[in-house]
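Ticket closed. Logging final result for Blue-light-activated histidine kinase.
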Amino acid sequence: MGSYLRWLKSNVSSTPLAHVASLLVLAGSIILEAINTIYIGQGVTFIAFIPVIIVIVYLEGRLVAIAVTLLMAAAGLWMRRVLNAQLSAEDWTSAIFLLVSGGLIASVFHRLRQDLRGALEVAEARLAAIDAAESRYRWAFERAALGFANANRRGELLQSNRRFFEMTGYGEKELAQLKLEGLVLPDDRDAVRALLKDLDNGAASSAADIRVLRKDGKAFWARLALSSSRPDEASTESVFVVVDDISERRAAREALRAQKEWLDLALSAGRLGTWRIDIKEGTVAGSGKFWDILGLPSKPVRPLEELSAVVHPADWPKLAASAKPSQAVNYDVEIRVRRMDGHIRWVALRGRQEEHGDRAMRIGVAADLTERRQTTLLRAAVKKHERIMLEDRHRFSNLFPVITALVKMINVPENDVAKYKEMLIDRIRTLEATHLILSRHKSLSGMLHDLVARELQPFKETRDITISGPSLTVPSGVAESFAMILHELTTNSVKHGALGDSQGKVGVKWQFASDGAGDDLVFDWVESGGRKNSNVVRHGFGSMIIGVDGTPLVGHSPKLEISEYGLRYSLRLSRKEIEL
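Final structure:
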């Protein structure tokens, strides 16, 4: 097509051969008219020159055609004069008609010549663009990263690119003898036939994942896409074939699927639910297990505010804060959830903040801690009950020596047994009051002075006892433990120290430290007088309570000094353990 247009364009332009042809036509025309006029005797017919003018216009152009017209008109008038010896009005009319006709013919054919040349130039430019596009297509077709081929509706391969050869391992002549279904595993040939059938049924394109069988016997996964030619094309048999090697993507997808299955299995085994909070939208999405932990029906996405209906009001700020941007990367809170059945469940939310495009997300897992917390609380309760039983046992075992000491300390006044009995009962009741103080765990909060005074109340009338210190309120938990320390010191003193000696003295005082640790309260228990078994330090339950080994039941930094002249016990209580 391009060569034809170039030939036509070259013929439209004037060439030396065209000049020669024009001269020959003009000369021949004039000679024939002269012979006709001289020898045959017929006059010049000016209209006979018009075909000559048309030929010259086509070969030479407008100006040459006008000049030839003038020349032929002059030649015709000259021959008319030679023949008739004069020129008539008809001769002049014919000559003028020839000039006008020749000028019009020259102008019209000149315009047609220009239009034809312009059309040829446009067609040539379009043809060049088509050639360039075809060249680019062929270049892309041959060097594409995908396998390209042309086939017919029967699946016969007509043309393939270089990549298609590399993927299949076949040469060009070998592929020309194969069909598409011959390039895939037998199990996937039905899929190829189905793709071709879709095109026959009018589908513009169709695709499927198949396994391509190479020449060397190896197979790989590929995405096979077939598309038919356009309906307005002359041939509708052409099928465009695209083969994309997806082996790596499929392997990665399979690995991701297997990893997801393992993750789902691990989450299910650990009874964990996954959640995701969109900070910008204020929405929360979660797995089925997550909604089950919260006691809500499964749903893809919920507004975060909707969870306020089940989250404990005291814990809602913790969850609401998760929908606000934060500098902290990790997120770890525990909330209480009131389920529809009325049960309160403890739920731990652990995750981190991530950026997904322009969206800030919090993602993590949720775990139901209710059973674990119940187990922890139960263990703590059992441990506390065991400790209370041990304390009660120790207190009960110490009770008899104290009663015995009370009996020995009271002398019979003037051999008055009734009065002696009354005094003994009074001391035992005082001891009972102290014992009840240690047994009532919820009512131990009170003044430190009262705890000391009640413990020493049975001995105040028969022993020299002094109590001094600022007025302080001791919390219930600390008061219980501190009362046990006082009871242990009292029992020890009755058995081995000042309270067991009629001449013994006991001084109890407490004050804030003045050695730089201003937040500590220093408690001192000082005994003076005879001391039984001063060189023996027993390590029993009582020693554990007062902290002979360095860890008292309450407080810190205990010091115990024992000599034959008495005993000194010192203990520090921090500011957190007392209340002013």
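The longest strand covers residues 344-356. No further action required.
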